[in-house]
Write a structure and sequence with these properties.
Length: 183
């Protein structure tokens, strides 16, 4: 299942398509933040908003319309004339794709009801559960699956963001990460 860091990395990957050395680095940070914003909808649980509701988790905030709207608001309020070497429309496209990637990545997971990708025009949820892209599905107890731990040892192959990181049981860390399908 995609995590907040995974969404941010996806946005930075999308940013590579727009990269020019003259573009301020803060633009890539804004894109990474945009990719995380849709998960703020979990706040609704605290206020009694149910999972399947319009404002519920993986609802409107995960839609393409929301992605377009968020990108538009940021560009109009902060970057109406664009930034160095990036026209406002190009900036909008980057921020839109960074935000939209969140819903698309979440639609690939098995653990939910789906995503309201085309909200508000339809109440149908979208899921790409069957897609595996050649990666094998990891099962509980799978010895090659990454293991969450509180700390990474200096001599182990690991990566992550505090307080958790992922350790790979195999001695060929890069092979396990890239070849056997971390996703």
């Amino acid at each position: 299942m995609p995590s907040l860091p995974t969404h941010a990395v996806a946005a930075l990957g999308i940013g590579a398509c727009f990269y020019r050395p003259e573009i301020p680095k803060g633009i890539w940070v804004i894109g990474a933040v945009c990719s995380i914003v849709p998960d703020l909808d979990v706040i609704g649980f605290r206020f009694g908003i149910r999972y399947g509701d319009f404002w519920g988790h993986r609802g409107f905030a995960h839609s393409l319309f929301f992605a377009a709207l968020l990108a538009l608001v940021i560009v109009v309020l902060g970057f109406r004339h664009g930034v160095t070497e990036m026209h406002a429309l190009t900036l909008w496209l980057y921020l839109f794709l960074a935000t939209a990637s969140h819903g698309l990545l979440d639609a690939l997971t098995d653990g939910a009801l789906g995503i309201a990708l085309f909200s508000p025009s339809t109440t149908t949820v979208t899921s790409f559960r069957g897609l595996r892209f050649g990666f094998r599905q990891l099962e509980w107890g799978d010895s090659s699956a990454p293991v969450a731990s509180q700390s990474c040892r200096a001599n182990s192959c690991g990566f992550g963001f505090p307080p958790y990181c992922w350790r790979f049981p195999s001695s060929s860390c890069g092979c396990t990460f890239l070849g056997e399908g971390f996703l």
